[in-house]
């Protein structure tokens, strides 16, 4: 565990987050339509994301033969809204800044702040995705949503478990051994895995805690529960609390009335972090 990382407290929130229940009697039509889109996205995710599809996606999308300016890619998040998220309708670029600034205001390490900025940046995959793969701006089932481990039974405490039986891997014949470690598991492909592999391709210098945050922050059934503890090894157990702490900032900073504006000071601050940990000339493979 990185010695400079200290768990900070977080205020108790009163707003209800992650509510996926459709209440047709008490919700307005706009909210109902949004939740119906969320359900459709998860239904398609559980149907299509599986052990073999993971290999297909990695082979197709993770060769990283292109290079671009970091900020050009980041600003592409201005044009995508997460279709699986009931808690915000803001572009992902704003959510990223909300998360990062909340972390910075709590005086956490600068690499942790950078994780806040880039944790959802893998959603830029939509730039060259398509509807068939679930990687387009309008069809996001292989970009967004709570992830799950493919090749084994999907746990009942995952969000919207009613769609689990649609998955071809949802049986008792696990492809993994006890405590094999998350590294040996194929988590359903999405923006987490894509951004994790982007960081590796660019030889980032953040600590391993950052890799866990980026790669597993959507794996709620692991970091917010115990369903996958039978697959976790000692490293995973040590890292879980870091991902849990990050999740507080990822979730509770969502506020559509708090649209933080970019300033030259903010741009300079985050540019320096990118140069420090990812690329000194701001050019990255993606």
What does this 3D model show about the protein?
The protein is mainly α and 286 residues long. It has one domain (29-285). Helices cover 41% and strands 2% of the residues. It has ten helices and two strands, in the order H-H-E-H-H-H-H-H-H-H-H-E. Strands 1-2 form a two-stranded antiparallel sheet. Helix 5 packs across helix 10 (264-277). The model is unreliable at 1-14 (pLDDT under 50).
Strand order of the largest sheet: 1-2
Shape: globular
Fraction of residues in H or I helices: 40-55%
State Rg: 18 Å
Query: What's the average pLDDT?
Result: 93
Structural class: mainly alpha
Number of helices: 10
Distance between the termini: 29 Å
Strand share of the residues?
under 5%
Overall number of strands: 2
Total domain modules: 1
Uncertain ranges: 1-14
Encode the helix/strand succession as letters. HHEHHHHHHHHE
Give the biggest sheet. Answer: 2 strands, antiparallel
Question: What's a quick, concise take on this entry?
Answer:
This protein is mostly helical. 41% of the residues lie in helices and 2% in strands. The longest helix has 20 residues, at 29-48.
How is the secondary structure organized here?
Blueprint: H1 29-48, H2 51-61, E1 67-69, H3 70-74, H4 92-105, H5 110-118, H6 191-201, H7 208-216, H8 220-223, H9 234-252, H10 264-277, E2 283-285
Antiparallel strand pairs: 1-2
Helix pairs in contact: 4-5, 4-9, 5-10, 6-7, 7-9
């Amino acid at each position: 565990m990185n010695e400079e990382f200290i768990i900070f407290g977080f205020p108790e929130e009163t707003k209800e987050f992650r509510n996926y229940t459709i209440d047709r009697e008490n919700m307005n039509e706009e909210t109902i339509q949004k939740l119906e889109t969320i359900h459709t996205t998860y239904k398609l995710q559980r149907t299509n994301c599986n052990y073999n599809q993971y290999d297909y996606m990695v082979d197709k999308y993770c060769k990283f033969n292109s290079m671009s300016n970091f900020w050009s890619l980041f600003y592409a998040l201005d044009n995508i809204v997460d279709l699986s998220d009931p808690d915000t309708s803001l572009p992902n670029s704003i959510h990223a800044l909300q998360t990062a600034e909340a972390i910075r205001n709590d005086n956490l390490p600068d690499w942790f702040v950078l994780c806040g900025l880039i944790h959802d940046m893998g959603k830029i995959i939509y730039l060259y995705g398509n509807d068939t793969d679930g990687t387009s701006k309008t069809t996001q089932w292989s970009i967004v949503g709570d992830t799950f481990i493919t090749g084994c039974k999907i746990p009942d405490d995952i969000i919207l478990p009613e769609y689990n039986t649609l998955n071809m891997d949802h049986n008792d014949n696990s492809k993994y051994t006890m405590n094999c470690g998350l590294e040996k598991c194929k988590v359903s492909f999405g923006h987490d895995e894509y951004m994790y592999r982007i960081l590796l391709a660019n030889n980032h210098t953040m600590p391993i805690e950052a890799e866990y945050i980026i790669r597993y922050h959507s794996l709620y059934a692991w970091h917010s529960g115990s369903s996958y503890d039978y697959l976790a090894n000692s490293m995973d157990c040590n890292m879980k609390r870091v991902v849990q702490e990050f999740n507080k900032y990822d979730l509770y900073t969502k506020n559509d009335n708090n649209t933080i504006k970019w300033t030259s000071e903010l741009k300079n601050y985050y540019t320096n972090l990118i140069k420090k940990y990812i690329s000194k000339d701001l050019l990255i493979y993606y």
